[in-house]
């Protein structure tokens, strides 16, 4: 096919579960993108916290192209060197003893939930199967993970949801005390709620969850799909809090744009997923593993991680300046380079209205629900791109205000 695809082709050929912007990016370099017409954009969206090193970072390109000339895929009838290297690297850098590789965050969370139930079944019996999650949480789009997630809209219309799932209130330890008991097998939590509005957990809340889980022999699962691999300013956000989970899930920034996911756990728990209990055709794919290893090794350095925290301060400084001028934000919050600006009362529900205006000004951003403007750029975005991107955002916000 030689014809150039258009945005209208999406409406004609694609299932309508997305509503993408009208522009079609065709090339990226660093934190900048260019569309079909050659227009340039600064990328504050980062592929929804995926493009951890921006677009076409030479370290990732080199890892991908080198592996592409060797081996792509084997299936899990065999293992491969890149997968083993990635697993070892993750174990050596975290609390974990064992790693399960897959292709996405939803798959990683599905595996974590199945592992928790299987472990509790084997250790305590069928009664210990209840899962505690939190209102406004998000854990993926499989039927199991969307049911554990605390946003019912994502499960509506698909039939009866799996049983044994209850939801507490995020940052409210008393709500968990009322739900957790000897029939509970796991508590699943995001250290920072992403899709729920960029809400960081309070340290005492996560510490309290750890203590409650220990009291009831319940597994604590940290969903770090969005917060992991440098996004918080540490390799994983649990390190920022000093609270260690039993199971941790990772994806998004892990592959820097290449589809990959991982579930990390300990020697105490891992044996519950014995041979044949779970699997993934593409899990541990050699290409994905090679790219993820390069990303982890590049990101887990003082230069990158300290730079994330420095860039956070710069984002916050500029967002506060925009707010002083226009009064559109109620609160600016987040960790590292996962930042949310909650709309003020006069602009409730209008975060999405900023996105097309920002596109017209040459900036790509995100939302996290109707009331939060979200930014999740490259962890190594040049500071000059932050300054210029914020100037473009200010112009978009000024237009929003003028049109109100």
TrEMBL record:
Cofactor(s) essential for the protein: pyridoxal 5'-phosphate
BP terms from Gene Ontology: L-arginine biosynthetic process
GO terms of molecular function: identical protein binding; N2-acetyl-L-ornithine:2-oxoglutarate 5-aminotransferase activity; pyridoxal phosphate binding
EC number: 2.6.1.11
Pathway this chain belongs to: Amino-acid biosynthesis; L-arginine biosynthesis; N(2)-acetyl-L-ornithine from L-glutamate: step 4/4
Matches recorded under InterPro entries: Ac/SucOrn_transaminase_bac (IPR017652), AcOrn/SuccOrn_fam (IPR004636), Aminotrans_3 (IPR005814), Aminotrans_3_PPA_site (IPR049704), Class-III_PLP-dep_AT (IPR050103), PyrdxlP-dep_Trfase (IPR015424), PyrdxlP-dep_Trfase_major (IPR015421), PyrdxlP-dep_Trfase_small (IPR015422)
Pfam families xrefs: Aminotran_3
Gene Ontology cellular component annotations, sorted alphabetically: cytoplasm
UniProt remark on cofactor binding: Binds 1 pyridoxal phosphate per subunit.
Domain of life: Bacteria
Principal subcellular localisation of the protein: cytoplasm
Catalytic activity, as annotated: N(2)-acetyl-L-ornithine + 2-oxoglutarate = N-acetyl-L-glutamate 5-semialdehyde + L-glutamate
PANTHER family tied to this protein: AMINOTRANSFERASE CLASS III, SUCCINYLORNITHINE TRANSAMINASE
Known partners and oligomeric status: Homodimer.
Name listed for the protein in its UniProt record: Acetylornithine aminotransferase
């Amino acid at each position: 096919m030689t014809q150039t695809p258009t945005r209208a082709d999406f409406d004609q050929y694609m299932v309508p579960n997305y509503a993408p912007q009208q522009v079609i990016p065709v090339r990226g370099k660093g934190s900048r993108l260019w569309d079909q017409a050659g227009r340039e954009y600064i990328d504050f969206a980062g592929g929804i916290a995926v493009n951890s090193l921006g677009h076409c970072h030479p370290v990732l390109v080199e890892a991908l192209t080198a592996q592409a000339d060797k081996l792509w895929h084997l299936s899990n009838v065999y293992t491969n060197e890149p997968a083993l290297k990635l697993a070892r690297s993750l174990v050596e850098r975290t609390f974990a003893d064992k790693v399960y590789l897959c292709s996405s965050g939803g798959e990683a969370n599905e595996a974590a939930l199945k592992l928790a139930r299987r472990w509790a079944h084997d250790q305590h019996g069928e009664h210990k199967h209840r899962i505690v999650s939190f209102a406004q949480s998000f854990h993926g789009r499989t039927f199991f993970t969307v049911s554990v997630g605390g946003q019912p809209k994502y499960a509506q219309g698909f039939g009866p949801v799996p049983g044994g799932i209850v939801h507490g209130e995020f940052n409210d330890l008393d709500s968990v005390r009322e739900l957790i008991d000897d029939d509970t097998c796991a508590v699943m939590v995001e250290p920072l709620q992403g899709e729920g509005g960029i809400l960081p957990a309070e340290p005492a809340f996560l510490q309290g969850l750890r203590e409650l889980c220990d009291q009831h022999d319940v597994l604590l699962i940290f969903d770090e799909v969005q917060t992991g691999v440098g996004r918080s300013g540490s390799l994983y956000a649990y390190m920022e809090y000093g609270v260690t989970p039993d199971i941790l899930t990772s994806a998004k920034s892990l592959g820097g744009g290449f589809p990959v996911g991982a579930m990390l756990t300990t020697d105490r728990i891992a044996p519950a997923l014995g041979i044949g209990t779970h699997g993934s055709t593409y899990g541990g794919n050699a290409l994905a593993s090679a790219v993820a290893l390069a990303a982890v090794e590049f990101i887990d350095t003082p230069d990158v991680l300290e730079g994330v925290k420095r860039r956070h301060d710069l984002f916050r400084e500029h967002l506060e300046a925009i707010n002083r001028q226009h009064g559109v934000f109620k609160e600016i919050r987040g960790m590292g380079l996962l930042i949310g600006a909650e709309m003020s009362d006069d602009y409730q529900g209008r975060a999405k209205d900023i996105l097309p205006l920002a596109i017209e000004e040459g900036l790509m951003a995100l939302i996290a629900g109707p009331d939060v403007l979200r930014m999740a750029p490259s962890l190594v975005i040049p500071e000059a791109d932050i300054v210029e991107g914020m100037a473009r955002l200010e112009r978009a916000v000024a237009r929003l205000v003028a049109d109100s």
